[in-house]
Write a structure and sequence with these properties.
This protein is an alpha/beta fold. It has 21 helices and 20 strands. The protein has 3 domains: 5-96 and 179-262, 3-Layer(aba) Sandwich (Rossmann fold); 108-178, no CATH class; 286-551, P-loop containing nucleotide triphosphate hydrolases (Rossmann fold, 3-Layer(aba) Sandwich), CATH 3.40.50.300. Helix 3 packs across helix 4, helix 8 (221-227) crosses helix 21 and helix 14 runs parallel beside helix 16 (439-450).
């Protein structure tokens, strides 16, 4: 039996206005039947370009050389994807290899039902018989991948499914065609930790139940530890190390691999993270009592209660972590604290001033003005929070200009340069535009802008969720260092328990708009008392294949609706 995939000396470059830009430089790797090979590395390392080469999905601006041999696991040699005709590529896609994308919404047609799209794949490859038989197969495969009520869901459109259900549907489309190799490009990055665990369990079943091999592209080393047999580490377009998963984690051979593993937050390792000591003196920075936030319905639909009777306190100098799945109310609470969302019930005081409820009164407007400049906000995606027409320096200076601080142009420029230096951005980046920065650099600039007015409270909404592990580590070190130096309080919103364990003094666990558990971070995450918190902790893969194996696998539960 031969390998399902063999990549030999693959080179890929892209044509740009400035000339050819190499993306992959001499990559060689293989995937055997039933094997899971993880391809890891930072953004720009060439992981996704390598993965897309397997199915001939490179854009017209790309040029490739080398060999990408895609086989069926028999003694026959595989076919070279790089030289295959368009017709042959269509035949190979789906039957020999199929792609599972990071965001399944982009892989599904919004105007056709899930069942139609699954059946259309069968029809295009001459499988499944007539229309009724293909629909029956669609229902069968939706059931096999754990989608609840498959007879009902087969008639649903993509927007009617959750993110995890859409990912399951995409996997079902591949498995229904009998694909031998799944190329999974960051298949869990956009998912909550519990949904991620269920998709990982499904990928594991793809191998054990259906004999499907997986080429897994990810920057999450916990996912690698949970699922992979072997690991290939990429940097700057090259594979710098390949090894069995346990060997690589236990004794990484390349300096970059050691750097990558050292940057991973190791949840539950028993190591007590170093955090600044919160101050208990002085009045609370934030005081919420039975806080309620409702969103009105539209087009005749019922309204939605996002936050339901939540009470908490943030003291001066304290970092409060807010965790939970998507839809739990985390971001809504952060926006309410920052005055970006209207409170509809209960009481919320920020620096002693009540937050507006419904239409602002004159007193509430005055109170809101009194907190202006005392709150900084770091958004999840800095790319969409910066004005693309302003330079980094102009964006960081904007709060100083808007709030009319008594500074002249020269003093503002000096303050901006000082802020950029504090967040470890080179002086030359000040005159760049947001699109000229990397994701980590934009997030650092976002942090500098949030700190421009020296706020007493920082609201950080998923500030590291879109970052590679090494960049995430640098941003977290920067956050804790600045918090220790400047002493601001913080509301840190995240679904990543390992990150919260590293930065927070206390943690609140939210579920469907309510607090289910709260307390010191070490106690809540180390010894959770609520069943929901225990599920969150159990679902997070640890970046150690030995420890992860000891935790065992949870059986896939039929009828789950979260994914």
């Amino acid at each position: 039996m031969t390998d399902l995939l063999r990549v030999e000396d693959l080179h890929v470059g892209f044509a740009t206005d400035a000339g050819p830009a190499p993306a992959v430089r001499g990559v060689s790797l293989s995937v055997a039947p039933g094997e899971v090979l993880a391809l890891v590395g930072e953004s720009g390392s060439g992981k996704t370009v390598t993965a897309r080469s397997v199915l001939g999905l490179l854009p017209a601006t790309a040029s490739a050389r080398g060999r990408v041999l895609l086989g069926d696991g028999t003694a026959e040699p595989g076919e070279d994807v790089l030289t295959a005709s368009a017709a042959r590529l269509r035949a190979l896609r789906g039957t020999h290899a199929a792609m599972v994308f990071q965001e399944p919404s982009t892989a599904l047609n919004p105007v056709f039902t899930i069942g139609w799209q699954l059946a259309e794949g069968l029809r295009a490859h001459g499988r499944g018989g007539g229309r009724a038989e293909r629909r029956a197969l669609a229902v069968e495969w939706l059931d096999k991948v754990g989608i609840p009520d498959p007879e009902l869901r087969v008639g649903h459109y993509p927007h009617q499914l959750s993110g995890g259900q859409k990912q399951r549907a995409v996997i079902a489309m591949a498995l229904a065609l009998g694909t031998r190799l799944l190329v999974a490009d960051e298949p869990t990055t956009a998912l909550d930790v519990t949904v991620q665990a269920e998709i990982l369990e499904l990928l594991h079943r793809c191998r054990t139940d259906f004999g499907t091999a997986v080429l897994l592209i990810t920057h999450n080393m916990g996912v690698v530890a949970d699922l992979a047999d072997r690991v290939a580490v990429m940097r700057a377009g090259r594979v710098v190390e390949q090894a069995p998963v346990r060997e690589l984690f236990a004794a990484p051979g390349h300096p970059y691999t050691r750097e990558l593993l050292a940057a991973v937050p190791d949840f539950g390792s028993g190591r007590e993270p170093e955090r600044p000591v919160a101050a208990d003196d002085g009045p609370p920075v934030v005081q919420a009592s039975d806080l309620v936030v409702d969103y009105p319905g539209r087009l005749g639909r019922k309204g939605f209660r996002a936050v339901d009777g939540v009470s908490f306190t943030i003291r001066p100098g304290e970092v409060l972590g807010l965790v939970g799945e998507s839809g739990s109310g985390k971001t809504t609470i952060g926006r309410a604290v920052a005055g970006l969302t209207t409170v509809t019930g209960g009481r919320l005081e920020v620096f002693g001033a009540p937050s507006a409820r419904g239409r602002r009164t004159a007193r509430q407007a005055t109170a809101g003005q009194s907190t202006a400049g005392r709150i900084g906000y770091v958004f999840q995606d800095p790319a969409t929070s910066f004005n693309p027409l302003l330079t980094v320096a102009e964006s960081v200076a904007e709060p100083l200009v808007v709030h009319r601080r008594e500074l002249d142009a020269e003093e503002i420029r000096a303050r901006v340069e000082s802020l950029l230096e504090a967040v470890r951005l080179p002086r030359g980046h000040a005159d760049r535009y947001p699109h000229e920065l990397s994701g980590g650099e934009r997030q650092r600039a976002s942090l500098a802008r949030a700190l421009a007015l020296r706020p007493q409270l920082l609201v950080a909404d998923e500030p590291t969720s879109a970052l590679d592990v090494s960049v995430q580590a640098k941003v977290l070190d920067l956050f804790t260092g600045l918090q220790r130096e400047l002493g601001f309080a913080a509301l840190f919103v995240s679904h990543d328990l390992a990150v919260v364990e590293q930065v927070a003094d206390r943690v609140l666990v939210l579920h469907r708009g309510r607090i289910v558990e709260e307390g010191a971070t070490g106690r809540v995450l180390g010894d959770p008392q609520d069943d929901y918190t225990r599920r969150l902790v159990a679902a997070l893969p640890v970046p150690d294949p030995v420890r992860q194996a000891r935790r065992g696998r949870r059986p896939l539960e039929k009828g789950r609706t979260s994914a």
